Amino acid sequence: MVGVFFHAVYRILVVTAVLFRWYNRNMEGEVFLSKIPVIVIVGPTAVGKTALSIEMAQVFNGEIISGDSMQVYRGLDIGTAKVIDDEMAGIPHYLIDIREPSEPYDVSEFKQETHRLIRQIWQAGKVPFLVGGTGLYVQSVLYDYTFSEVESDMAYRDSLAEMPSAVLLEMLREVDPQSAEKLHENNPRRIIRALEVYHLSGKKFSELQNQEQQSSEFEPLLIGLDRDRAELYERINLRVDIMMNQGLLEEARKLYDTGFRDVPAARGIGYKELFTYFDGVMSLDESVELLKRNSRRFAKRQLTWFRNRLDVTWFDTKEAGVKDAVAIEIRQFLVTNQVF
To answer: Which residues bind ATP (predicted)?
Structure first.
């Protein structure tokens, strides 16, 4: 009972402090911080990012921006593990259900919209949270990419679009093996962009990525969630089984029936695997096993990305007291940045 009381008092103090800063900044025109603090929570699929981020947003008066490239699409709910209203606990969530599966959406659009939302949340007296597992999207918000300044050559791009993805990947491997190693045949759009950048600038896509600089506007706290690899893989397998019971097959069938096959939404994990069943290439059991395998491999790639490219403080979600440890980390960060 005493713990609940102090938790409530603590949350009131956080809210009051943030609102006080907002009042001073807007009424007196005084800016206390040179950068906006942003709480960033990342990690592999099925590790528990959604639940923990909602709890932290409740404690620290936050609002959540989704950092998942697939959750932007309407109707792709089960396969993307999209948060539902009952789970949100009254915390506003952004960049969910903002595009039709047939509509394109890329990292530059995400970066622009997320920057706007971070400013909006902060000006409203709230703490912005960025939560997701799409490494490139999260990284784009925190760093200024120089390759975004390279213009486009639509004629060159269209000529590449007529080639098989495997051929494109081999072309990229000849000029930029580092980028080719990170990209997959199922992502021809990114392969074409890497080739286009090299074609226009003579510079490797991977080198331009490494020339990034941290945004001068935001001060991020990067929190990573992880757990024992075997346990994580068990959670992923179980999650796929739960998704199938919830109606993932029917959800994937609706997307399949639209006829849109060469769009990012149709290439997402959870959908492309079940398309093999609809095409008669695999049995249902085989396609589900393929989905589990691809999800496990995706989780491994996510961890590799975050560990190699971002300065993340990691927490084991199985450890006792992990929520308290994360809360202490966030509180210290906010204190350091004079939020309260």
So the answer is: 43-50
Determine the structural domain holding residue 164 and report its residue range: 147-210
Distance, in Å, from the CA atom of 308 to the CA atom of 323, rounded to the nearest integer, reads 25
Q: Is 67 annotated as a binding residue?
A: no
Residues 120 and 252 in one domain: yes
CATH number of the domain that 177 lies in?
A: 1.10.20.140
Residue 49 annotated in ligand binding: yes
Final residue in a domain of this structure, among 192, 210, 228: 210
Mean pLDDT (the chain) is 87
Question: Same domain, yes or no, for 219 and 329?
Answer: yes
Q: Are residues 182 and 84 in the same domain?
A: no
252 labeled part of a ligand binding site = no
46 in a known ligand binding site? yes
What are the φ and ψ backbone dihedral angles of 260, each rounded to 5 degrees?
Answer: -80, 105
Whole-angstrom Cα distance, residue 147 to residue 169?
19
For the segment 207-232, the average pLDDT, to the nearest whole number, is 84
Is 146 annotated in a binding site? The answer is no
Q: Percent of the chain having pLDDT more than 90?
A: 62
Among the residue ranges 8-12, 61-65, 243-247, the one predicted with the least confidence is 8-12
Among residues 210, 235, 262, which one ends one of the domains?
Answer: 210
Q: Which residues pair with 226 in a beta bridge?
A: 316
CB 204 within 8 A of CB 196: no
**At residue 79, does pLDDT exceed 70?**
yes
